[in-house]
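ugh ok fine here u go
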Amino acid sequence: MVKYFRKYSWHFVVLIGLLIVTMGANGGCGGCVTVTTPVGDTIAPQVAITITSGVSGNTIIGDDVGIQVEAADDKALSKIELYINGSKVKESQTSPLTYDWDVRGLEYRTEQKIKARAYDSSGNVGSSEEVILTVGDANAPLVTITSPAGDWVKAGTVTVKASIQDRSSKKAPSYIKKVELYVNDELTNTMDNLDLPLVS
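structure:
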């Protein structure tokens, strides 16, 4: 008995969402068979975080921090999740996700870690770069002119007195670093390197 073996060559062509396989004998295409089958989506969404308000550089200086998360996918975006210090704080089915974060209860100089994830309809997950912010002191000092009082002064030399008090927040150390005195919008006197809790 003589057995004949037929050699087949395989040709793969990948299109968007499809895998086309063409099988032919010995490099020829007589009686070729073409099989078309869907190809699974393996591309994860792209995700990016933008801090829109309440910070200076990487330092939190306001009572609220504005966060925006943008995500995009080559197929269909399913949802976006926003995490702060490992806990999910918001979810959205559309991009962008926006969130106003109340930071008044945070402790001074602690690190806050922000991350986002995006999912597509095929279950692929994309993660953003982690954003790390440090809590700063949000409240400005309180300044009150105590002398001269009223709306007018006599001609001659006038002594100006002021009460300056730091209103530190988030357990920040309370001190005054520098005091500037302006007359008619012109800087007339400066006291710096004070490091005092209260200047009067």
